[in-house]
Design a protein that fits this description.
Layout lengths: L5 E2 L8 E5 L23 H13 L7 E3 L8 E3 L12 E4 L5 E6 L3 E7 L4 E7 L1 H6 L1 H11 L8 E4 L9 E3 H10 L7 E3 L4 E4 L1 H11 L4 E4 L14 H6 L8 E6 L2
Parallel strand pairs: 3-6, 4-5, 9-13
Antiparallel strand pairs: 1-2, 2-14, 5-8, 6-14, 7-8, 7-9, 10-12, 11-12
Length: 252
């Protein structure tokens, strides 16, 4: 049995956290590995076992709260695992021993912590949520629990990199019209297309919100099939399904 691979951020040292990939799980076939996506066609028992392994890799035996992610800018407070998962794309807590989990398959997972206040958060930042302000919503909700913006640190985990993320002109215009300064996150691609740097865009939103310490892991989910799930890679390969990895944070 292979061990669960846990990628950690230096900025979050001392905080229980990890950006997990596909290594260390029990799923098989095209979903082989640590698939935690209940929206996949995977065996529910395999998903449950993978989620247990993922949580145990961060705080053994700790409960895990997740949301029903909808590419929104909505953040909610969690005090325990939800009986019915809320439609939201960020979770915030100050409850010791509770783990927060965000699922991704190319979108950017963002983990936050104000260690002094004992407040942590996890956000799912795809292009739509990032543009809509999911990181801003997360920071604001953390502040309601006593976090201070100047004390919050954040890390952006494995996501699709610019070299792998081709977008069309309409996508580019959507960002440029919202803020002309975002053009710097797009490189020229083939005719009528651009290469979008989601990781850098999310990091810039965090910095603009007043987060002084922002770390990016620089891991491309698309380009590393042995380590990470990728929706776009599965689509390009015409696979019938795709897995989801999880990023987790909690208060020790």
């Amino acid at each position: 049995m292979s061990a669960v691979e846990v990628n950690r951020a230096r900025a979050l040292e001392g905080v229980a956290h990890g950006f997990l990939g596909r290594r260390g799980g029990v799923s098989t076939g095209i979903l082989a590995g640590l698939n935690v996506g209940t929206g996949s066609q995977d065996d529910p028992e395999s998903i449950a076992e993978n989620r247990r392994r993922a949580a145990d890799a961060i705080i053994p035996g700790a409960p895990l709260a997740t949301a029903f992610q909808v590419h929104s800018a909505d953040a909610v407070i969690a005090t325990a695992p939800f009986a019915e998962r809320p439609h939201a794309d960020a979770l915030v807590t100050n409850t010791p021993g509770l783990l927060l989990g965000i699922l991704t398959a190319d979108c950017a997972p963002v983990l936050f912590a104000d260690a002094q206040a004992g407040v942590v958060a996890a956000a799912h930042a795809g292009w739509k949520g990032a543009l809509g302000g999911v990181t801003d919503s997360t920071i604001a909700l953390m502040e309601t629990l006593g976090a201070r913006r100047e004390h919050i640190v954040a890390a952006v985990g494995p996501c699709i990199a610019r070299a792998s993320y081709e977008v069309d002109e309409g996508f580019f215009r959507r960002f440029a019209e919202a803020d002309p300064a975002t053009e710097r996150f797009f490189a020229d691609g083939r005719a009528g297309h651009h290469q979008f740097d989601l990781e850098a865009y999310v990091a810039s939103r965090l910095a603009a919100a007043g987060i002084r310490t922002v770390e990016t892991l620089g891991e491309d989910t698309y380009a590393q099939p042995e380590r990470f799930y990728s929706f776009r890679r599965a689509t390009h390969r015409q696979e019938s399904d795709y897995g989801r990895q999880i990023s987790i944070i909690g208060i020790n």
